[in-house]
Amino acid sequence: MTVLISPSELAAALASFAPPRLLDVRWSLAKPNGLDDHAAGHLSGAVYVDLDTELADIGDPREGRHPLPTPEAFQEAARRWGMRDGEDVVVYDAGHGFGAARAWWLLRHAGVANVRILDGGFAAWAAAGLEVEAGTVEPALGTVTLGWGGMPVVDADGAEGWPRHGALLDARAGERFRGEVEPMDPVAGHIPGAINAPTTGNVAADGTFLSREELVVRFAGLGVGADTQVATYCGSGVTAAHQIAALEIAGIPAALYAGSWSAWSHQGRPVATGE
Questions:
Q1: 115 phi/psi in degrees, rounded to 5
Q2: Is 59 a catalytic residue?
Q3: 182-185: long-range pairs with CB below 8 Å, 24+
Q4: Among 21, 186, 218, 249, which residue has the fewest nearby CB atoms (within 10 Å)?
């Protein structure tokens, strides 16, 4: 399985004898809850997934704004989405893939092998003139049994030491990395030794991912290749999952620091500013 699926490929898969499970993960910092957008129009049969409550835990700020859910809570959520063992899954969001990538990463972490991101999301699907429906979808309770630990992760101590032997990529915008602004967290700056690699650089203007070849060139320009040990973080572990998807397309495995800057900045750890 590849990371991505195009609208035309998905349309064909949905018409097959074994259509994939569709998960709508529309989310943004400006509008975390996308249920009304889902109700206004979504891919036929898609189930809405709430990133803040179903793809993250809520707890100690020192663990970050979007710490990983417990395995038990995530399996419970997946069953609410109607998931069954062995079925393919396609996740999508409004367009740039940030929310969808969080779902993609978590499902891979939980052992779901056949999960892909709709490249360009709902915007690309609608632009192609493909079928949408309004309302909400409440599937029958699923029976999926999930695992845990399928994707590499790193904790704060690991992230602190990572630059000594590999590349630690910070997926936030440059002004946040440099410490010029910090709209969300108590301290501005970045983890010492990290390399700024804004997630927006992974996509084209229409929100679709760059090609494999383009992503290889992008990461090579940051000193990152197939033999580099890579870990990545962002503000709270959401867009860093998008970075991991882009790295995987480029053939580069990477670990996730899930707590990211929102956890780091609450723990009194070292902070760097500037380039």
A1: -130, 135
A2: no
A3: 182/265, 184/29, 184/65, 184/235, 184/236, 184/262, 185/235, 185/261, 185/262, 185/265, 185/266
A4: 186
- Position of tokens 């399985």? 1
Rg for the chain (alpha carbons), in Å?
18
Structure tokens at 210: 């760059």
Residue that finishes a domain, picked among 81, 100, 133? 133
DSSP state at residue 221:
T
Q: For 260-275, give one letter per residue: b (16+ CB within 10 A) or e.
A: bbbbbbbeeeeeeeee
Q: In this structure, is residue 147 part of a structural domain? A: no
Spatial separation of the C-alpha atoms in residues 252 and 242, rounded to whole Å: 13
In a domain, 248, yes or no: yes
Predicted pLDDT of residue 33? 87
Single residue among 133, 167, 196 that ends a domain in this structure: 133
Instruction: Check: pTM over 0.85? Answer yes or no.
Output: yes
Q: Are the beta carbons of 229 and 203 closer than 8 angstroms?
A: no
Tokens standing for 257? 């620091």
CA–CA dist 100, 239 (Å, integer): 10
Q: Active site residue: 234, 250, 252, 258, which one?
A: 234
Write out the residue range of the structural domain in which residue 182 sits: 156-264
Band of pLDDT at residue 205, cut at 50, 70 and 90? very high
Answer for the pair 42, 93: CB distance below 8 angstroms, yes or no.
no
- Answer yes or no: do 101 and 179 share one domain: no
